[in-house]
Automatic annotation (TrEMBL):
Species the sequence originates in: Desulforamulus ferrireducens
Molecular function via GO: phosphate transmembrane transporter activity
Transmembrane segment boundaries: 7-29, 68-92, 104-128, 134-156, 197-219, 257-278
Domain ABC transmembrane type-1 residues, every copy: 64-275
Protein name: Phosphate transport system permease protein
Alphabetically ordered keywords of this record: Cell membrane, Membrane, Phosphate transport, Transmembrane, Transmembrane helix, Transport
InterPro entries: MetI-like (IPR000515), MetI-like_sf (IPR035906), Phosphate_PstC (IPR011864), Phosphate_Transport_Permease (IPR051124)
Highest taxon, organism lineage: Bacteria
Membrane topology recorded in Swiss-Prot or TrEMBL: Multi-pass membrane protein
One cellular component term from this protein's GO annotations in UniProt: plasma membrane
BP-aspect Gene Ontology terms: phosphate ion transport
Stored Pfam families: BPD_transp_1
Length: 287
């Protein structure tokens, strides 16, 4: 039975890997003609996106900057909140409260992103328009606020697991020396769990950078290089979602969008590879 389970897991893992490689190869083939027109450097760093112009302009630098503003802004808000929640759940909350809060956090990950987008559009956007006399409350900051709520469950659950993975001997030895619980948490447990917590941050960044619907509804969708967190912008996933349906199949516009998707996919994969590397180091450190 154990061998059959192992073979089944191996087959599932193999199929998943083949599927991922097939997606990468498919997107590379669809975007291949673009790379003969625009160099990868100009495509990634260029700030002009006009696939219908002559000569053609395919630069996604503006969208990449918008993506970084929204993702990093969300992390700046989510990491302190998520880390405090994880510490509370792992070290201070009574078991009955943890048993209630943890399923609630898991439920937050299952809410469709379009629902978060609707809430942001009807609450946050209206709030900024009414209270700050803005013609439109959409901004990268507004998108980051919603992304903060979306990535919080991932950061909390992963950080809590990292704190709970610290061997009990450290807690027992510290308490035997008479240190307080806050001192034990801040000076002993957090340094020991830092790699796992860093993995939680990387996971949250990957989730925020790849989000489409919420940023599409809240970021403003203007193709201008954002100069601040409160500017409007068009993150890369929003660009693909907005223009893929109106592009002519086989045109440079269509292939350029596939190239943008390939860049986004490789970017998120790189983040996940870093996460796997940190997890492996953490396990080897614990062992």
């Amino acid at each position: 039975m154990r061998e059959k389970t192992g073979i089944l897991c191996l087959l599932v893992a193999g199929c998943s890997t083949v599927l991922l490689l097939a997606v990468i190869v498919f997107m590379a083939l669809e975007s291949w003609p673009v790379w003969s027109v625009v160099s990868p450097r100009d495509f990634i760093l260029g700030t002009n996106w006009n696939p219908l112009a002559e000569p053609i302009q395919l630069g996604i630098g503006t969208m990449l900057v918008s993506t970084l503003w929204t993702a990093l802004g969300a992390l700046m808000l989510a990491v302190p909140i998520g880390l405090c929640c994880a510490i509370f759940l792992a070290e201070f909350a009574p078991p009955w409260m943890t048993n209630i809060l943890r399923p609630v956090l898991n439920l937050l990950t299952g809410i469709p992103s379009v629902v978060y987008g609707f809430l942001g559009a009807t609450v946050l956007v209206k709030f900024f328009e009414v209270n700050f006399a803005m013609a439109s409350g959409e901004s990268l900051f507004c998108a980051s606020l919603v992304l903060t709520i979306m990535v919080l469950p991932y950061i909390i659950s992963t950080s809590e697991s990292a704190l709970r993975a610290v061997p009990a001997a450290y807690r027992q030895a510290s308490l035997a020396l008479g240190v307080s619980k806050p001192y034990l948490t801040l000076r002993v447990l957090l340094p020991l769990a830092k790699k796992g917590i860093l993995g939680a941050v990387i996971l949250g960044f990957g989730r925020a950078a790849g989000e489409t619907m919420a940023v599409l509804m809240l970021a403003g969708n203007t193709m201008v290089l954002p100069t601040s967190w409160f500017s409007k912008g068009e993150p890369l996933p929003a660009l693909i979602a907005l223009e893929l349906g109106t592009s002519v199949v086989g045109s440079y516009h269509y292939q350029g969008l596939y190239a943008a998707g390939l860049v986004l996919l490789l970017f998120v994969l790189l983040i996940n590879l870093l996460l796997a590397l940190f997890r492996r180091e953490r396990r080897s450190g614990v062992n």
